[in-house]
Write a structure and sequence with these properties.
single chain; TIM Barrel; Lyase, Ornithine Decarboxylase, Chain A, domain 1; 8-stranded parallel barrel; about 25% strand; globular; binds ligand LLP; Diaminopimelate decarboxylase; diaminopimelate decarboxylase activity; pyridoxal phosphate binding; lysine biosynthesis; lyase
Length: about 425
């Protein structure tokens, strides 16, 4: 069982590097990743035949390169993600299993790419089968199945059930087999991802559904994928799933299928958050402290353009304070609301689902101190935007105590690139 993290509200270092030094060198707002955390998380999942990183969580090509070197393969949800993976050295050769294109539609660009590179495709809609079949008859494909139920940390990240647009409805599998057969395609993989932040309770139902569908597909099946969704604790009362139990259930399913089909069926897992969330930190500088009625606000130079999860899902992130000139651990805790610079009241990092603003007990922050928003390595930078014409933050990767810049801070020129004033 994994040891639960303890969240401290005072911090001076990340992965052995002084936060003040990092800020002096790279400025704020700043994303920092600790590679040793990613390495540990990869090791945790070693029992699976393949770990397929859902790069949507954090897709910087340096992170992808490190994943590749550790033997982790990738999932790609767009032509852009396929190209990133190839830039990071992954081969599109379907026989190598390194890149799988997983989506609910082909846009024209991704279909062209899937044809050009013979990518392995995980079809999330019946229509994708025929669209690929016309141009690549005989291709081997995976089907993403919606088992009829889902689960997730928020309604927006629940990807199963009738309200979800994801996957092939479990009752339409026979129709998909006919469609595949029409173009001589072979279904070699099955995949189920019911949501992000899933739990063990739903797992046996997922495994049962997987087995049922697998029996329909039959002996062509070579791989089953458990999808992503492994949770990480964002709060002190949250926990990881028991990975031994999680693996045991999937392994038993795989073993039964291997026995029935007379060949080994591989077992994949497809985590995003589990591999990268806890490695990431967003550092911002406190630029204003103000009382508004009974509330104390600390306004920092990062906003929901940098980290959208709190405003989008009411997600909780641990937050700590780093003193610019003095240690904050002896400061009296105060109840403080942490907000950003954007022109909306929702630009608050301390809120829960429904937009309810909350304060946090933190060491009293002063102007010039740093606020460190933790567990920000998944769905952090990748969901950032240029709203309010803000340039996006740089990303730094720390390996063996050495910080390395893996993305430069955007400039004003980056911001307006491509914009045109017509005559
Ligand atoms: N596989 C598929 C097909 C997915 O759609 C996803 C996530 C994953 C794997 C990885 O899920 P994870 O292990 O990271 O939970 N922006 C939201 C999360 C959206 C997830 C979308 N799909 C958030 O910030 O929580």
């Amino acid at each position: 069982m994994l040891t639960l993290p303890t969240f401290s509200t005072a911090r001076t270092q990340i992965a052995g590097c002084s936060i003040s030094d990092l800020v002096r060198k790279y400025g704020t707002p700043l994303y920092v990743y600790d590679q040793s955390v990613i390495d540990q998380r990869i090791e945790d999942l070693a029992a699976f035949d393949r770990i397929r990183y859902a790069q949507k969580a954090c897709s910087n090509i340096a992170i992808l390169d490190r994943m590749r070197r550790k033997g982790v393969v990738v999932d790609a949800v767009s032509a852009g993600e396929v190209r990133r993976a190839m830039m990071a050295g992954y081969s599109p050769d379907p026989a190598k299993h390194e890149i799988v294109y997983t989506a609910d539609i082909f846009d024209h660009e991704s279909l062209d790419l899937a044809v050009e590179h013979s990518l392995h495709v995980n079809c999330g809609s019946p229509d994708m089968i025929g669209q690929l079949g016309v141009r690549r008859p005989g291709a081997e494909i995976t089907l993403r199945i919606n088992p009829g139920f889902g689960h997730g940390h928020s309604q927006k990240t629940n990807t199963g059930g009738e309200q979800s647009k994801h996957g092939i409805w479990h009752e339409q599998v026979d129709d998909c087999l006919l469609r595949a057969d029409h173009d001589g395609m072979m279904i070699t993989g099955l995949h189920m991802h019911i949501g992000s932040g899933t739990d063990l309770e739903h797992l046996s139902a997922v495994c049962e559904s997987m087995e049922k569908v697998a029996m329909k597909v039959g002996r062509t099946l070579r791989t089953i994928s458990a999808g992503g969704g492994l949770p990480v604790p964002y709060k002190s009362d949250e926990s990881y799933v028991d990975l031994d139990e999680y693996f045991a259930l999937w392994d038993a399913t795989r073993n039964r299928l291997s026995e029935t089909f007379g060949h080994r069926v591989d077992l994949e897992i497809e985590p995003g958050r589990y591999l990268s969330a806890e490695s990431g930190f967003l550092i911002a500088e406190v630029r204003s402290i103000k009382k508004v009625g009974k509330n104390l606000f600390a306004l920092v130079d990062a906003g929901f353009n940098d980290l959208a999860r709190p405003v989008m899902y009411g997600s909780h992130h641990p937050i700590s304070v780093c003193g610019a000139t003095s240690d904050v651990s002896s400061r009296e805790p105060v109840e403080v609301i942490i907000g950003g610079p954007l022109c909306e009241s929702g630009d608050i990092f301390t809120q829960r689902e429904g937009g309810f603003v909350e304060s946090r007990p933190l060491p009293m922050p002063f102007i010039g101190d740093y606020i460190v928003i933790e567990n920000a390595g998944a769905y952090g930078f990748v969901m950032s935007s240029n709203y309010n014409s803000k340039t996006r933050a740089p990303e730094v990767l720390i390996e063996n105590g050495q910080p390395k810049l893996i993305r430069q801070r955007e400039t004003f020129d980056d911001l307006v690139r491509g914009e045109v004033i017509p005559d």
